[in-house]
Structure to design on (423 residues):
C-alpha cells in the first residue's frame, strides 16, 4: 500500500473511540432510569432508539441560542440556524455516502420518504396504466400502503416477492416477476419483524439490468450497518432519524439526482419555490423543491448530532457487538422450552421475533414489563408477515449497540417467569 494512504487509513482508525458498552451506556441518560423499580432493560430498538446526551443537548442548544427560521432571513440568527441545518444535511450525505447534498431530502421519516416518492412519481410520466411495482412479503406497512394508494390512482399492479419459512426473500421468484411492465422495485433492507438482511445489491443489479429503479427502505439498516448508497447503486433510500439515535420527526430520503430532478414536487408552499405569480410558479432546485414549509430545524440538527455520535465509533465494532448479542440471545432463547423464533435467516441483524407455546405475545410483553424489560409485541406494522406465518402477533426483542449480555440474561429470566405463570 502507498505509505501516505497507509498513514491516512491508520489515522482514521486511531481517531475512532474504543468501544466499551458500559462507558457508552453512560452517554444515554434514559438507560440509567428505573421502570417498575427495576433497572430499565430497553429491547425495543427496532421501534425507536434512545438518544445520547449530545443529541439532546444539540437540540436544546439550538432552541436556546440559535432559534430562527432558516433559508429566508438575512439576520445573524437565521444565518446561524441555516448553517447548522445545512451542516446536518452534509452529515447525512456522508453518513450514507451520497454523491451530493442535493440528493438528501429532509422528511419526517422513512414513511414520509416513501410517500414522497410514490406521490411524486404518481404525478410524473413514470407510471402508466398496466405498469407494475414489485415489493416483498416482508415489507413494513410504510412500504406497502403508499404503493397501494398509487396503484389505485394509476391502475398499476402490485407484485409481491414471497419469503421462505426462514424469512428470506425468494430471489428466484423475484427474477421471474420482473418484466418490461415493472416500473419500480421497493424492498426493505433489513426486516423489522424478522431481522433478515436482504441481498439488496443483487436485487438492485438485477432490476437495473431491466432499467428498473429501486427504492430501499433503510429504516432498520441505517442503525445496524454502514450504508453506502453509491456502492449499493440504489435509486432511492429512506430512513428515519429516531431509529439512528436521533430525534423523532426527522429522516431523509436519498434520491439519485436524475430522478429527483425529473420528479415534480409533492407538497407546495414556502421555501420550495423560485418565483410565484398567480399564473405560474417555478420551483427551487433539489432538494429544496421537496421541502415545502418550515422544516424540523431542531430535528435536523439533532440528527446531525446523532450521526456524529455514531461516527465516533468504528461501525464494524458496533456491528460485532450487536452480532454477539444476536448470537447469545438466539442461543439462550432457544434453550427455553416451547419458544420458537420467527425469522431464522442466514443473514440477520439483532432483531428476534418469537412466540412461546400458546401464550399470547401481549401477555409476555405485559408480564416482563413489570420487571422493567421493554420488548415489542404485536404485528410490528407487518401484518402480511403475520399472515404468512399464520400468527396473530409475535414478541420481539431488538438490540442496539448499548445493550449488554446481562440484559439478554434478564430477558431470559423474565420469560421463564412468564412460562411459570402459565403452567
Ligand atoms: N420501514 C421499516 C422497516 C420500519 O421498521 C419502520 C418503522 O418501524 C418504517 C419503515 C417506518 O418508519 P417511521 O415510522 O419512522 O417512518
Amino acid at each position: 500500500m502507498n505509505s501516505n494512504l497507509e498513514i491516512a487509513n491508520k489515522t482514521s482508525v486511531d481517531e475512532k473511540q474504543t468501544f466499551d458498552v458500559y462507558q457508552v451506556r453512560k452517554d444515554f441518560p434514559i438507560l440509567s432510569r428505573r421502570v417498575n423499580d427495576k433497572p430499565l432493560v430497553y429491547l425495543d430498538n427496532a421501534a425507536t432508539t434512545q438518544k445520547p446526551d449530545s443529541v439532546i443537548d444539540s437540540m436544546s442548544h439550538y432552541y436556546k441560542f440559535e432559534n430562527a427560521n432558516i433559508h429566508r432571513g438575512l439576520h445573524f440568527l437565521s444565518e446561524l440556524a441555516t448553517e447548522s441545518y445545512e451542516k446536518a444535511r452534509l452529515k447525512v450525505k456522508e453518513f450514507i455516502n451520497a454523491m451530493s447534498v442535493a440528493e438528501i431530502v429532509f422528511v419526517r421519516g422513512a414513511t414520509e420518504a416513501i410517500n414522497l416518492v410514490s406521490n411524486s412519481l404518481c404525478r410524473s410520466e413514470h407510471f402508466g396504466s398496466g405498469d407494475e411495482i414489485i415489493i416483498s412479503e416482508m415489507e413494513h406497512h410504510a412500504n406497502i400502503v403508499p404503493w397501494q394508494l398509487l396503484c389505485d390512482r394509476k391502475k398499476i399492479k402490485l407484485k409481491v416477492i414471497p419469503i421462505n419459512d426462514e424469512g428470506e426473500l425468494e430471489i428466484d421468484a423475484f427474477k421471474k416477476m420482473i418484466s418490461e411492465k415493472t416500473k419500480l422495485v421497493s424492498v426493505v433492507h433489513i426486516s423489522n419483524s424478522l431481522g433478515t438482511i436482504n441481498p439488496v445489491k443483487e436485487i438492485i443489479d438485477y432490476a437495473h439490468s431491466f432499467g428498473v429503479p429501486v427504492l430501499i427502505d433503510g429504516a432498520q439498516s441505517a442503525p445496524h450497518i454502514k450504508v453506502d448508497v453509491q456502492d449499493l447503486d440504489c435509486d432511492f433510500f429512506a430512513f428515519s432519524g429516531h431509529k439512528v439515535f436521533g430525534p423523532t420527526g426527522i429522516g431523509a430520503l436519498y434520491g439519485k439526482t436524475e430522478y429527483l430532478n425529473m420528479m415534480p414536487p409533492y407538497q407546495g408552499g414556502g421555501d420550495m419555490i423560485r418565483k410565484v405569480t398567480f399564473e405560474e410558479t417555478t420551483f427551487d432546485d433539489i432538494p429544496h423543491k421537496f421541502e415545502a414549509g418550515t422544516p424540523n430545524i431542531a430535528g435536523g440538527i439533532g440528527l446531525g448530532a446523532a450521526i456524529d455520535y455514531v461516527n465516533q465509533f468504528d461501525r464494524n465494532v458496533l456491528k460485532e457487538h450487536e452480532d454477539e448479542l444476536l448470537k447469545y440471545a438466539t442461543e439462550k432463547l432457544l434453550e427455553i422450552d416451547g419458544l420458537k423464533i420467527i425469522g431464522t435467516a442466514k443473514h440477520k441483524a439483532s432483531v428476534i421475533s418469537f412466540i412461546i407455546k400458546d401464550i399470547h405475545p401481549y401477555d409476555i410483553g405485559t408480564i416482563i414489563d413489570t420487571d422493567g424489560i421493554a420488548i415489542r409485541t404485536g404485528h410490528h406494522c407487518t401484518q402480511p408477515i403475520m399472515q404468512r406465518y399464520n400468527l396473530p402477533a409475535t414478541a420481539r426483542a431488538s438490540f442496539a449497540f448499548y445493550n449488554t449480555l446481562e440484559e439478554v440474561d434478564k430477558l431470559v429470566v423474565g420469560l421463564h417467569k412468564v412460562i411459570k405463570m402459565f403452567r
The first helix runs from residue 3 to 15. Residues 46, 109-111, 140, 142-143, 188, 192, 217, 219-220, 240, 381 surround pyridoxal-5'-phosphate (CB under 6 Å).
